[in-house]
What we know:
Nonspecific Lipid-transfer Protein, Chain A, 9 helices, alpha+beta, 6 strands, 4-stranded mixed β-sheet, two-stranded antiparallel sheet
Amino acid sequence: MPPARKRTRTYDPARTRTAVLAQFGNVRAAVGVLTPEQLELPTRLGEWTVGELVTHIGMALESVDRLLGVPEPGRQDATVLDWPPAASADLTHAFRPCPGPGAFLADVEKSLIQHLAEQPATRLLDTNAGAMPLADYLVTRTVELVVHTDDLNAAVPGLGITHDRQALAAATRLLADALAAKAPGASTEVRVPPFAVVQCVEGPRHTRGTPPNVVETDPLTWVRLATGRVEWSAALAEAKVSASGERADLSGLLPLMA
Length: 258
């Protein structure tokens, strides 16, 4: 008999909406005080400047309005777990020129708040991963926001944009579940306290006591590993991740998105 399909984790729609708006608000507030010189600083995303990264963040949230503006699909054929393998390009896709990124983010925020207040969480969106509920798509926006907040903080010394706890939690859990979906199994336990614990990788199933193969790291390091911002070997060398057991090497599975 084939193994049962793992049930997709559920996320509270109201908390997700609050997290998305909170993290976007954190970014918008920080961007509003950047100087023209800071907006021209390079980022770790190839040739992108800080200003171009800010514009991309706005576009990532503007996509909610865009998808709400087209006819609703007839039926759901995707869940939030279908997004990571289909959306790697979303984290670095092309941007359009934007002369005033701060004003652009303010406009996006205003429109987003209005549309989220009007639309039910069950409203289907025709995303690049398939037709999924608005509630699921908003979880994917937490990944965009958390990853790119970290990119901005890395690019601008002293910027220090805060990560909303619920946004970081949702992004961590989605990327942990994406690993379990990519490498199904129960021989390795991946712990990202305090937000996620998943089992993955084929091999002997653990039933009691301390698992023989354990990986543990903090949420931001996990997000960086999963999205290619940090390499597995570097995280190990810097003691940002601990890995014990012969099946605890995740280097062949990461990044999940790049």
